Amino acid sequence: MTHSAVARAADGIEKTAEILAPAPMPVAGKISLVGFGRPALSEKLAAIGVPERELRMRVNQLWHWIYHRGAQSFDVMLNVSKTLRATLADAYSLDRPTIVSEQISVDGTRKWLIRMPPMGLHDKGAEIETVYIPESDRGTLCISSQVGCTLTCSFCHTGTQRLVRNLTAAEIVAQVMIARDRLGDWPGASRPTDGLVPDADRAVSNIVLMGMGEPLYNFDHVRDAMATVMDGDGLSLSRRRITLSTSGVVPMIEKAGNEIGSMLAISLHAVRDELRNELVPLNRKYPIKDLLDACRNYPGVSNARRITFEYVMLDGVNDTAADARELIRLLKGIPAKINLIPFNPWPGTKYKCSDWTRIEKFSDMIFNAGYASPVRTPRGRDILAACGQLKSETEKLRARARLMLDEGIGAEGVYAVGAGED
Ligand code: SAH
Ligand code: SF4
Predict the structure, then answer these.
(1) Which end of the chain, C or N, has fewer beta carbons within 10 A?
(2) Residue 216: domain span
(3) How many whole angstroms separate alpha carbon 268 and alpha carbon 245?
(4) Measured in angstroms, how far is the CA atom of residue 278 from the centroid of ligand 1?
(5) Ligand 1 pocket, 267 CB below 6 A?
(6) Residue 159 sits in a domain of what CATH number?
(7) How many domains does the chain have?
(8) H or E element in which residue 139 lies
(9) Nearest residue (CA) to ligand 2, atom 4
(10) What is the pLDDT of residue 392?
(11) 421 inside domain
(12) Which H/E stretch holds residue 164?
C-alpha cells in the first residue's frame, strides 16, 4: 500500500490498516543509504558481496562518514578501499530526499518542504514539512513522523490533510540530515549567512517530534530513526534533547519510554473529557484519566525528567481560570512542565487564539502553583511554520484547485485535481 487517500471514520479516530503497512522501496534510481540504521546498512553491504567477517567494520566506517561527517559521496571515504567505494557507488547513493522549497522567516525560523522519492508507478513522491527554530543558545528541529495525520484534532491544520502514510525510519532521519546540510552543521562546514543560526557547537541541538503526524502510530519507524539519531558515533543527540509529542496513544506510552527513552510531551489541551473529545477525538478511546495514569507510569519520569503538557490557548474554549485550576489539580503528583501554546490560526479554522491578558492570567495561575509555565512564542508565523500549521504544499494547491472548480473557474494550469495519488 502506498499513498492511498484515507477516508476517516466518522468519529475522527484513526484507520490503522493502511498506515501500518510498511512503505515499499523507491521504484526508480539507486537506493540511498542515507537514514538507514546499522542492521539495514549491514544488509546492503552483504548484498554487494562484502564478506560476513568484514561487515561490522565496514558498517562502522560508513556510519562515521554518513552520520558524523555528513558525506554526500562515497569518493570522500578515504579509509574505504577504492574498489569498495566504486562498488558502493555503482549500487547505491547518498542522496537526500528533494528539497522542494526552503522558506526563511523574519525571525530566522526555516521551513523545508521535502519530497520523498516515489514509491509506486503513479506516486509523485510524498511531501512533508520540517521546521528549524533557532534560539540564542540552541537550535530545535521539528520533524514529521507521518505524511499528514489520521487523527483529526479540530484545531490542527495537519489533521485536515487527506493523504496519509507512515514515513520510514530512513525518511525520518533524512530530515535531520537535510537540516544539517542546509545549516552547515557538519565538521568543517560553514554556517549560512542568510539568517539566524545560533552560535552554538551544533546548529541542530534539539529535536522535537512535533511536525506532521502522530509518532506513536508509527512506532517502529520512529524508534529505529531515533536510535540512529542518538547513536554516539554518528548524529549523537542525547535522548534528553529529543522530545516525542503524542496526542495520547495510551497503550504505546510505556513502550515508548522503554524502547525510545526520549522526553515525552502530551498534547492535553483540555481538562474535561467532554471538551477533549471534541478537540482531540482520540480522547474518546483513551480518556484523560487513562492518559494521566500512563504519564505517572512513564519509565524514567522524575523531577529531573519531567513530562511536558502542551495546552493550546483557544479563545472562549479552554482558557478560563476554572480550566487553569482543574489543570493544576489533574497534574498533581506528576513531574510536569506546562507549555502554553498560543493557537496558530490557519485558513478556514473556526478557532481564535485567546487574548494576551487571558493567556497571562492562565500562565500566572500555573506559575503560582509551582510550575514553570512558559508561553511558547509562535515562531515562523509568516511562513506558516508554527505548530499545527504544517500541511504539504501539494495538499494546499489541490485544495485551491478544488475550490476554483467549485466556483466554476478552470483549474488547468493550476494543478490537476486528484491526479496520481493512488
Ligand atoms: N501529533 C502529535 C505531534 C504533532 S502536533 C501531537 O498531537 O502531539 C505538535 C503540537 O502542536 C501538539 O501539541 C498539537 O496539539 C499542537 N498544535 C496543533 N495545531 C496547533 C495550532 N493550530 N496551534 C497551536 N498548536 C497546535
Ligand atoms: Fe495529528 Fe497531532 Fe495534529 Fe492531532 S494535533 S491532528 S495528533 S498532528
Answers:
(1) C
(2) 105-390
(3) 10
(4) 14
(5) yes
(6) 3.20.20.70
(7) 1
(8) strand 139-142
(9) 153
(10) 60
(11) no
(12) none
